[in-house]
Specification:
Blueprint (H helix, E strand, L loop, with lengths): L3 H31 L5 H12 L4 H24 L2 H4 L2 H21 L4 H15 L3 H9 L6 H25 L4 H22 L16 H4 L4 H31 L8 H10 L1 H15 L1 H22 L4 H14 L4 H11 L5 H35 L5 H15 L1
């Protein structure tokens, strides 16, 4: 019979693992709920384009402004060390609640595009306290297997980001009601983190923000290749997520188009499959290989998008869903790789820098695609997104060689 101390240790370990998995589930649900405000403006764009007489380029600013807010917030939260100086769960709660309020203001206090852009920017600013802080909370519960567990959380983020399309399609046909429902969801996510999730046993503070490290971290080749691969991934991701409805509208312009919000929701939400399955495969295949394969397939989808446009509706939707799986499946792997390869004394600064620059890249691709579409039509516009994942695949191959 084994000593009592061994049994007690095993029981404690089992309880610790159970608590950690429970925390992962709750944090993922909270992130899903809180990220509903991210694409509220994007989902509302078709209605606002008709209501405010917006061009495709002007409509894109409903997404771009959120991205700019998130970029600003990411560096602001890092510079002030908010999630280190204060409890991360409380930072998440306050950010989700403030984001919910700004998103509700977008719904009910925006008579024109300029006002909407301001509220969308402020919503993005607050989301910087949701996504990165959620990752930190998850990391505080696990010492190993972070790659696939972040896959679960990013998968939840993916579904939450897509949720405004689903709300619009099945529950709230008016864009103001959809945005309000998203705000209620975000507030609920904040409260869930505050009251149901504890602090993990491996809670660590991020390195203090040092402006010089924004440049210095890139001197380490493995981190540099990881970051450059991530930038290529981001070039494609949010342009696909936010503008695929334009591609679908061009395809189904002679039909009612009532199913487009549902398809747009599925195109984003199906990414949860890629995140979770890709994360699970990375346990044996490695994060780099999962990211490389994902980007090769995703780049191929970009190149094939113009030809797929002529497919029958059912096959085209299947193509979009496959694309939606692989466009995001590499995202949690990049986070795990960056955490592994960045200078250990400046992990927080390195991850923040990668995240901020990556989202800055999305601003350019989201703004560029409508300009390209005005010249070659939406059928062929997404072909140009292949540049990003193709470059990312190249840097992942460099990471392996070096």
């Amino acid at each position: 019979m084994p000593p009592l101390t061994d049994g007690t240790s095993s029981e404690k370990l089992r309880q610790s693992n159970t608590s950690a998995e429970g925390a992962l589930l709750l944090v993922s649900i909270a992130v899903l709920l809180a990220s509903a405000t991210w694409f509220s403006g994007t989902a509302a764009a078709p209605q606002l384009r008709a209501l405010w007489q917006l061009s495709d380029g002007e409509s894109a600013w409903l997404t771009i402004s959120v991205q700019l807010g998130f970029i600003t917030g990411t560096f602001l939260y890092a510079a002030l060390n908010l999630s280190d100086r204060f409890n991360a769960r409380k930072v998440f709660f306050a950010s989700a609640l403030a984001g919910a309020l700004f998103n509700a203001a977008f719904a009910w206090l925006s008579p024109q595009l300029a006002t909407a852009i301001v509220f969308r920017f402020l919503t993005g600013l607050m989301l910087a306290g949701v996504y990165p802080v959620g990752m930190k909370i998850v990391a505080s519960w696990f010492q190993t297997g972070l790659g696939w567990r972040l896959g679960v959380m990013v998968g939840a983020l993916t579904v939450g980001t897509a949720s405004p399309y689903l709300i619009l399609a099945v529950g709230a046909p008016r864009w103001q009601l959809m945005a309000t429902a998203a705000s209620v969801s975000a507030a609920a996510g904040g409260f869930l983190i505050l009251v149901a999730v504890g602090d993990g046993p491996y809670l660590k503070g991020r390195a203090r923000f040092d402006p010089a490290m924004i440049v210095k971290v890139f001197r380490h080749p493995p981190f540099r290749y990881t970051a450059l691969g991530y930038f290529g991934h981001m070039w494609e991701l949010y342009a696909f997520w936010s503008l695929s409805s334009f591609y679908l509208t061009a395809k189904f312009k002679d039909q009612t188009g009532s199913s487009i919000p549902v398809i747009s929701f599925l195109a984003i939400a199906v990414g949860v499959v890629g995140c979770v399955v890709g994360g699970w495969i990375s346990r044996t295949a490695g994060e780099r290989r999962v990211a490389l394969v994902s980007m090769i397939i995703s780049a191929s989808c970009c190149l094939a998008s113009g030809f797929a446009f002529e497919l029958p509706s059912t096959l085209l939707i299947a193509f979009i869903l496959i694309w939606g799986i692989f466009v995001i499946s590499d995202s949690p792997q990049f986070s795990a790789l960056a955490a592994r390869h960045c200078p250990p004394d400046y992990t927080g600064t390195a991850l923040t820098t990668q995240n901020g620059i990556g989202f800055a890249v999305t601003v350019f691709s989201i703004q560029l695609l409508p300009l390209i579409a005005s010249r070659v039509e939406w059928r062929w516009a997404f072909t140009f997104l292949a540049i990003g994942p193709a470059a990312g695949a190249y840097f992942m191959s460099r990471l392996q060689r070096d």
